[in-house]
Amino acid sequence: MSYLDRIRECNSHDLSHFMPFHVGDLRVGWVRRTMAEVLTHYADVLEIGDARIDLVAGSSPVERTAAMLKVAGDLRGRGIIRSWRDEPYAVTPDFGSPALFEIERAAAPFFGVRTFGVHVNGFVRKADGLHLWIPRRGYDRVVAPGKLDNIVAGGQPAGLGLAENLVKEAAEEAAIPRALAMTAVPVGCISYQLETAEGMKPDVLFCYDLALEEDFRPRNTDGEVGEFQLVPVTRVMETVRETDEFKFNVNLVLIDFFVRHGLLSADSDPDYTAIVTGLHA
Question: How far apart are the first and last CA of the chain?
Fold first, then answer.
């Protein structure tokens, strides 16, 4: 395997399987063609055409949100949408643009809307080089149970700023105090578009680097992590490249870290330019 393989895995999709989902002139998502018939039951909310699906209910974000929540709730009752979170995500063509409406997190892949998240690389500089704090996800997690993860990672709820969400997730997932979490450095974002059993995930992850002292010990407080290990970055690189131990999108966040810290270069990997461009689907 290779780093480029990891990037390709996160961008595996066939758009011929999907219909564009629109709000007015803006495409905001992708709906699997096999689900179009299901959505004809909601003609007061969604217009199903030959080539696209349009949200036609409501003239304001609040009205659209209410209409889509009704549809998503009914799809949940029919067992089509699962793992309900009671967590609204903003649906917007670009981060920072006003939300067109909000959607339940569990329904986001079904409608193929772009979601956002924050991921933190928690690293320690030791005499023998860089080390990364790596947690293992709980085996009861709905997504990627038992997989390795970033020290802090979470989806971006509607109505919450990135920094505020980072502080919240840092406290919940690793018992990182607010003052320390606020020292995390924003270092850019990665994106990918992945076809899954639930639908489409055209997602953006905002990445942060957090320098930690050698005596710091993360501690999970929300039950989502089973254990933490401080791992030499060389071993992390090998694990990403040679195994599927990490959660699929965490691989991309780590590859971005390797590139930015000069651990992965054009001299060391012939796929370097494809890797760098591939982190931004």
Answer: 20
For residue 99, count other CB atoms closer than 10 A to its CB: 16
Multiple choice CATH, 3-10+116-278, 3.40.50.300, 3.40.1480.10, 3.90.550.10, 3.90.79.10:
3.90.79.10
Radius of gyration, alpha carbons of the chain = 20
Provide the angle, in degrees to the nearest 10, between the axes of the packed helices 233-242 and 248-260: 130
* 131-179: pLDDT as tens digits: 999 999 988 888 889 999 999 999 999 999 999 999 999 999 999 999 9
Per the DSSP assignment, residues forming a β-bridge with 253 are none
pLDDT, tens digit, 9 for 90 and up, residues 94-118: 898 999 999 999 999 999 999 999 9
Q: How many residues does the chain have?
A: 281
Note whether 92 and 102 are within 8 A (CB).
no
| DSSP letter (8 states) at residue 280 | B
In terms of CATH architecture, what is 15-111? 2-Layer Sandwich (3.30)
**pTM, full prediction:** 0.95
**Dist. CA 46–CA 136, nearest whole Å:** 40
